Amino acid sequence: MEREEIEQPIITEDLSRKGASAKSPEESKPVAQHHNTFKVVGLGGSAGSLEGFEQFFHHMPPTSDMAFVVVPHLDPTQKGLMTEIIQRYTTMPVVEITAGLQIQPNHVYVVPSNQETSLEKNVFQLHHPAQPNGQRMPIDFFFESLAMNRREHAVGIIFSGMGSDGALGVKMIMENFGMVMVQDPNTARFDSMPRNAIKTEFVDHVLRVEDMSDKLISYAQMPPIKGKHVEEAHKSTQMLQKIFSLIRNKTGHDFSLYKRNTIFRRIERRMNSHQIVQLSEYVQYLKENPQEVDLLFKELLIGVTKFFRDAEAFSLLQERYLPELLQAKQEGDTVRVWVAGCSTGEEAYSIAMLLQETIDKLNLHLKIQVFATDIDPAAIEKAREACYLENITADVSPDRLKRFFNKMDTYYHVKKELREMVVFAVHNVNRDAPFTKLDMLTCRNLLIYLSAELQKKLFPVFHYSLKPNGLLFLGSSETLSGFPDMFTTLDTKWKISRRTEGNIPLARLVEFPFTFSSFETVKPHPEPPVTVKKESNMNGVIQRVLLQQFAPPTVIINPKGDIFYVHGRTGRFLEPAQGQATLNIFDMAREGLHFELDNLVTRACVLNESVRTEDVQVKTDAGPKYITLTVTPLQEPDALHGMLMVVMEDKPAPKPRKGRKDSPEEASVKDARIQELEKDLLYTKQRLQTVIEEMNSSLEELKSTNEELQSANEELQSTNEEAMTNKEEMQSLNEELMTINLQFQTKAEELTNSNNDMRNLLDSTEVATIFLDNKLNIKNFTPQATKIFNLIRADIGRSITHIVSNLKYQHITEDVQEVLERLRSKEVHLQTVDEKNWYSMRILPYRTLDNFIDGAVVTFTNITSFKTLEASVAATSLYAANIIDVIQQPLLVLEGDLRVECASNAFTDTFQLIPEQLKGQLLYHLGNGQWDIPALRQMMSRVVQDHEDIKNEVIEHEFPVLGYRRMILNSRRVEQTESKPFKILLAMEVFEK
């Protein structure tokens, strides 16, 4: 998950700025009217997308009040005519993007193929490609900037194409509340890009191209996200609670502590997709359609991540902070990391790669254990698969791809070495016990979605989880404000912090799942800000004066002793304690007051009633004082519910008893006895206080031990999930093994028969074959090989270099060595010494079943008849080519699908084309689309479909390079044999204007 949901106004720059052309009032009026509301539609496609673009703009009305940006994923070295081609199918202005161009509605913009384009504050910017050809992702690059700039006004559409470009971009658009459409893969010429986009599950609609315009227009006409319905939704807390209840009952997760702005906008997106206007109607729709609850749950969990996101932050972490962290470890220790909110696992694997590279660089011997958790089970399941699309090449360096991944088809699979470092588990940071004794904790772009109340609860948890000097790695939009005593900021920009080793105030200790006290812990309420108001009457003034003059010193505390309000002069009874400054009454109580205060607070909390004690002696700077101490639980007002009021009232010293006077001896004995009892009482009080403190300390240790046990249990559960997954795989493998064991006898018999068949096949085949080992010794050969080499059965085991051949070619040994070194097959045509026969020699590596190279296979196929035919065909082809070149008129020979087979020199000279680039090109794509002439299309359609011959038909066309040309065309369809398609001859006479 990423980026904080902050509404940022979209700023449109002044058109009169430097580099922008001045616009007329009529031209600038639409921009001024729609600069914050019009939709920007990004259209991405690769191979085969030109047809989709043509159909899209053919059905799209020119006054839709939307801007369109075409992002073709094409070869940057080829100059295309995309702008001219699209202009034929729409009346909207179509322009190629230049740096500094401002976007306007009802315009079509084409991204240049040799540069990457971004949209910044409604102005296009061009960038030099950072990735080499073949690894560039121009669609992702533009879609990301489109999502960040236009947010809910962004629309992404994926058309036909090869590869996975655009898959990450649609995630970004969806996360920023935009809309995503994909061409139906069944209608796409190449379906890789549409299918990869659909696999992300971040797609609103999968449609045919001709249906996209209607859906897009209806979406644009929906009320904006900040419409009145959202404002009503903010007021409808009851409706929102019902939605939370439905999600909680269906998934077990509570979203009540997520940011309301994010929740409402996600709900608004789902309402728009179903054309629902009222929030109450959507609640009813959720009740009637349980599958919509799952879809809304996934909508709320949208998480966009990628490998090494914010590459500068990861580089800083690896170069500066990880070495210091790892060098402090002992040999053989385990580096423990928790990645909270890991989504589909990219960040967890990125951290594991950084740690492994740093350990190798420092030449240390450490183990790595990364705990990666997320609330979404589907994301965890995908992370465990450890399989990612090939578009990760834009974020992962070639060295890391080679070391940590295996390429299979169009996917990259994480190697076992890296996969075993990471344990994935479903985990809710708000509910489940945290992992502990961590060296590093990363929680990037998750906290921004949580309310401030939940964030305040999580940071003490993070502090508790980390070891001293452990690293905390947050997202760039997250902050540690309010917790300076827990973490020391190392890098402000990239939010890298270190755990502070000092003691944390009691009020900020971790709230464990249970408590040993019999009363409920009350959350501290901050003192409301003091405001000075003008007194409206005399009664308030008199009451305030009376309180100041006659009310005894009073302190408002919570059950833990934290002070929230002080009335009167309390300096005689309370003083600041040594060490770190705190406002805790137990730490500040003067000698003689601490014991009685602790006792009364405990009794008041347990009995929930006012308690009082008399004649409490407190030692002050002016000598001992006697006070009456009263502690009263507060029930109202609501702001003070759960608090305690401590009243310290002065009292005169107790008078001695009046009565019979004792004799001096008796008085002396009594005084001594009283002093002895007072000493015993003081000693007992001190011992009792020590026992209480030790008990509190033991209680805290028990809490910590319990939390560590819960964390260990969580780790065991996570590991158990991994073990269960492995167990299922082992059970599956065991079942397969049992099946194989049952079939073993049959397979052994089949193998024997196959060996017999193979031996007879090799003996009866007409292909001469020799099997060599890695040292070029002969392992076996077929009978036909004796016609080429002077071989006998006794030669098995001898080197091929010792055998004489009947071939002119003398480099067979070098060719075999070359094949064994490069592991690539090689084919050579050879002639015998008597020049009567030709053989095609093919050398291939000999691979065992476990893909081990165990020599080479050399085959010789007789191609004498083929060589004779080839010489004949070459002569015929040369004859035909010379005839075509002699003809002075331009002439084309086309295949049945109108692709060029050959062209005369007169044609290439007349139209300034390169002969080597013509063969295989479609007629209408010649000269970068210059031959895409409607009249020519109609004429060739008659030739192909109606079998009609064209004679002296005139076509006039303005070529971009040559200028105006008048052509008289003649065409004939030439039928061939049944096994070969027909060909078309196209001759022409060309006249200049």
Map the helices and strands.
Blueprint: H1 25-34, E1 39-45, H2 49-59, E2 66-72, H3 82-87, E3 94-96, E4 108-110, E5 116-120, E6 123-127, H4 138-150, E7 154-158, H5 167-175, E8 179-183, H6 192-199, E9 205-207, H7 209-220, H8 228-235, H9 237-251, H10 260-273, H11 279-288, H12 290-300, H13 311-327, E10 334-340, H14 346-362, E11 367-374, H15 377-385, E12 387-389, H16 398-404, E13 405-408, E14 411-414, H17 416-419, E15 422-426, E16 438-443, H18 452-465, E17 466-474, E18 487-491, E19 496-499, H19 538-550, E20 554-557, E21 563-567, H20 585-588, H21 594-607, E22 611-620, E23 623-633, E24 644-651, H22 664-764, E25 768-772, E26 778-781, H23 812-822, E27 826-831, E28 838-847, E29 853-862, H24 864-886, E30 891-894, E31 900-903, H25 905-910, H26 926-929, H27 934-945, E32 950-959, E33 963-974, E34 983-992
Parallel strand pairs: 1-2, 1-7, 2-4, 3-4, 7-8, 8-9, 10-11, 10-16, 11-15, 16-17
Antiparallel strand pairs: 5-6, 12-14, 13-14, 17-19, 18-19, 20-21, 20-24, 22-23, 23-24, 25-26, 25-29, 27-28, 28-29, 30-31, 30-34, 32-33, 33-34
